[in-house]
Design goal:
20 helices, alpha/beta, 576 residues, 15% strand, binds zinc ion, disordered C terminus
């Protein structure tokens, strides 16, 4: 133990001497519980202890106490678990009656980089934000009746990126990493391999079928995920012409922001970040006047906002907005087209969000659904929690997990505003990350807390959350950094990783697909990722497979199925 640490933690070292004796029940009690507070208080207290005066032994002692005392009283009774399982069984049995209605609406939530370990950790975080131990809590997506796994590899990559995967789950065709809205015949950065290899998305199919369509994201609206819905680009990084090589420009390829405004001119709702790509080079940003990096980027001198407005029919109401106040004061019933760009680049992390200028993802989703659901033909909405991925890349697990919690809130919001009878909702991720949590943490341990023991090798404590690689790799004096010396519960704490990398990488394992609503049961096993939009299109009777729709529409919508109709008519003698 170094001298500096001895000085800093001398208080806790005194306490340790007392802990060298046996851990009695009384001692556990005094360590963990305030006489007038419930057990729920204990994890917080443990966290405070961990952060302020930790010694490895103290962590171990508290951990041991917690495992004995943190079991919620009701969970000690087998009746609790049996009743809970029986209820789940009844719910599962009801699913044998399949929902084969035609999906009037489709909502797709895409958590960028939201692997299964991220979902579990976010669930625990959400529970802990509500003062529960956390493990038993349920995300909105957890309540979806059908779950499948999605194989995320790109045609040329075992561990994929967000562009090739977006092409798969939006266009129904697997593609090369780094490319959007084109088949695997297109090579990244090679503009001249684009033409003839364009593939269209479910947003396009929905538009053709007369539905309203929308895109809501927390990244820039021309980022990889949303761009596969409307663009065809050999390179996801061609945000504006400023980012394109001269060769690609001379070969006639267009940047993604340009395509957003020109390819499908009547997308009803577009919200996210990305203002700077819409304006001529060096145009001052409306919000960050002094920030040179926020200025317009376009070399062609176009003002894409003006172009966007000019394409809208005169009698329709189109609104361009750039801040939260404008969003919240909109009357959705008088808005036909909405373009909201709330940041020059990506939007802020939810934890850092400015509540005056930046709406939350749920606020954007609420407005989007209000506008889109005016169409009697229904709508397709793509919602991206786009910065889960960024939090992970930076090794900032707390940022990433709070992004998931906010997206989950938006999923609940959408669920409240729609019906499973006519709305298919799919929640999935494009790919995972090398994010993990472990270390035999006790029940209710802060998801950002420490494992209850020290390493038996380097004798130092470690956080439950770790990354396989990334910027959190830190060696101090030739040894792994002692995490008790740093504020590992800070919003921007970078969790330790095994391999140093400036940017943590994606993970290659399957991701989950959660589904509810018409035909959700078709997402039922281990699927290739490009299967997903085929199911959504089938459910909505748009795109390629529509043969089944003729019989479904006979029975009306929502459809009880022709057989039920027949049975209903029997007593009336109509058929005989
Ligand atoms: Zn990424």
């Amino acid at each position: 133990m170094g001298r500096r640490r001895q000085q800093r933690f001398s208080d806790s070292d005194n306490r340790d001497q007392g802990l060298e004796h046996q851990l009695t029940a009384d001692y556990c009690q005094s360590l963990l519980f305030h006489p007038h507070q419930s057990y729920l208080w204990a994890p917080e207290r443990k966290q405070v202890l961990e952060r302020t005066m930790i010694s490895p032994f103290l962590v171990l002692a508290i951990g041991t106490c917690l495992t004995n005392s943190l079991v919620p009283e009701k969970e000690k009774d087998p009746k609790y678990w049996r009743a809970q399982a029986q209820q789940t069984l009844q719910n599962a049995l009801r699913l044998q009656k399949l929902n084969t209605n035609v999906a009037k609406n489709i909502i797709m939530f895409l958590g960028d980089g939201m692997g299964v370990s991220t979902v579990t950790a976010a669930r625990i975080l959400k529970g802990q934000l509500h003062n529960s131990p956390g493990e038993e809590s349920r995300l909105e997506m957890d309540k979806f009746p059908f779950v499948a796994l999605s194989k995320t590899y790109n045609t040329n990559a075992q561990v994929p990126d967000s562009a090739g995967t977006a092409t798969a789950y939006l266009c129904g065709v697997k593609a090369n990493e780094g490319t959007v809205g084109v088949s695997a015949a297109t090579q990244r950065t090679q503009c001249n391999t684009t033409q003839g290899n364009e593939v269209t998305s479910i947003l396009h199919w929905a538009k053709e079928a007369g539905k309203s369509v929308g895109i809501v994201t927390t990244t820039r609206v021309n980022h990889a995920t949303p761009s596969a819905a409307y663009a065809h680009s050999a390179d996801r990084d061609w945000y504006s012409d400023n980012e394109m090589p001269s060769e690609a420009l001379s070969q006639g390829c267009k940047d993604i922001a340009y395509q957003l405004v020109h390819n499908i001119k009547d997308i009803e709702v577009i919200m996210g970040g990305g203002r700077k790509y819409m304006f001529p080079k060096n145009r001052t940003d409306v919000e960050y006047e002094m920030d040179e990096k926020a200025r317009g980027t376009r070399l062609d001198g176009l003002n894409l906002i003006d172009i966007w407005k000019s394409f809208k029919p005169r009698h329709k109401h189109s609104h361009y907005i750039w801040n939260r106040t404008e969003l919240l004061t909109l009357d959705p019933y008088t808005v036909d087209y909405l373009l909201g760009l709330f940041e020059p680049g990506d939007m802020q992390y939810e934890l850092n969000r400015n509540n005056v200028t930046d709406p939350s993802l749920s606020e954007m989703v609420e407005m989007a659904i209000k506008i889109l659901s005016k169409n009697p033909e229904g709508f397709f909405l793509l919602v991206e929690g786009g910065r889960i991925d960024h939090g992970h890349h930076e090794g900032k697990a707390k940022q990433a997990l709070h992004e998931v919690v906010e997206m989950d809130r938006a999923i609940g919001q959408a669920g409240d505003m729609t019906s499973q009878e006519d709305t298919l909702t799919v929640v999935t991720a494009d790919h995972s990350h090398v994010f993990t949590f472990g270390g035999y943490t006790p029940r209710g341990n802060s998801i950002f807390g420490l494992a209850p023991m020290v390493s038996d090798t380097d004798k130092k404590p470690f956080t439950a959350i770790l990354y396989g690689n990334g910027p959190g790799y830190k060696v101090v004096g030739g040894e792994r950094e002692n995490v008790s010396m740093v504020d590992y519960a800070h919003n921007n704490y970078q969790a330790q990783s095994a391999v140093p990398l400036r940017h943590e990488t994606h993970g290659g394992e399957d991701v989950a697909v959660f589904a509810k609503g018409p035909m959700a049961h078709l997402l039922h096993g281990v699927h290739e990722q490009n299967y997903i939009p085929h199911v959504m299109a089938y459910a909505a009777c748009i795109g390629a497979n529509r043969d089944h729709c003729a019989s479904a529409s006979l029975a009306g919508s929502p459809s009880p199925g022709p057989l039920l109709l027949l049975l209903a008519l029997l007593p009336l003698g109509i058929l005989f």
